[in-house]
């Protein structure tokens, strides 16, 4: 297995996906509507992206703003539809009104995507208790990654948490890979890499022209080189 650090890039469509792969991305997070922080894409978009690239592709399961699940039946149907289209990796994460993991929703979705690997996304950064959340999710099949900035406000504030959690990687509940994203900058990388963190997630950083512009392969390549360095 390659020991190269993982670079994941947010893609909205096939053009983004192709540029991200050309720049050296290892994996994509496929979403729609970044004005709402990323919602589930359509089956048609997934199909076009899947046909455009051959790197792994994690698909967002989220239909509403915030970290509540909204209509769980509809969300489960979306998950099943994407699975039927060929999606085999996903991104999800929901909290209840108290900031605890919404286990009913998460478990329903995990059952729907049985056999797939998935990321619990930045809902962890708004959880009432990160350690408790990890313990409650620890036995769910397929969970192999937490996307986190260490803080709801981003990596600048969350860096101490990320470094502390990296040091606990062999403890129960801390085995899933830490995928660092959320206000991540190139100057954060040395401290993160020194702590043994080896997975990084970028969105706006891959788009110098902003979210109205496509992913730029050269920007992704800059991150690829920095992550590898």
UniProtKB/TrEMBL annotation:
GO molecular function annotations of the record:
copper ion binding
Entries under SUPFAM superfamilies matching the protein? CutC-like
**Highest rank taxon of the organism:** Bacteria
Among Pfam families, the record links this protein to: CutC
Q: InterPro entries attached here?
A: CutC-like (IPR005627), CutC-like_dom_sf (IPR036822)
Entry's family note: Belongs to the CutC family.
Q: What is this protein called?
A: Copper homeostasis protein cutC homolog
Task: Give the originating organism.
Answer: Streptomyces tirandamycinicus
């Amino acid at each position: 297995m390659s020991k190269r650090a993982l670079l994941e890039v947010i893609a909205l469509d096939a053009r983004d996906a192709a540029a991200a792969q050309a720049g050296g991305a290892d994996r994509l997070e496929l979403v729609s509507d970044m004005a709402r922080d990323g919602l589930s894409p359509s089956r048609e978009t997934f199909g076009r992206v899947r046909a455009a690239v051959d790197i792994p592709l994690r698909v967002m399961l989220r239909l509403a703003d915030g970290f509540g699940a909204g209509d769980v039946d509809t969300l489960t149907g979306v998950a099943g539809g994407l699975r039927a289209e060929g999606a085999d990796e996903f991104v999800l994460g929901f909290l209840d009104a108290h900031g605890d993991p919404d286990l009913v929703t998460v478990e329903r979705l995990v059952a729907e995507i049985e056999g797939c690997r998935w990321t619990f996304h930045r809902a962890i950064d708004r959880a009432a208790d990160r350690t408790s959340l990890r313990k409650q999710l620890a036995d769910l099949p397929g969970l192999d990654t937490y996307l986190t900035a260490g803080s709801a406000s981003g990596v600048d504030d969350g860096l101490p948490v990320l470094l502390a959690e990296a040091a606990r990687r062999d403890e129960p509940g801390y085995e899933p890979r830490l995928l660092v994203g959320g206000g991540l900058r190139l100057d954060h990388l040395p401290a993160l890499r020194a702590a043994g963190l080896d997975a990084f997630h970028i969105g706006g950083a891959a788009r110098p022209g902003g979210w109205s512009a496509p992913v730029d392969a050269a920007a992704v390549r800059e991150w690829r080189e920095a992550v590898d360095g």
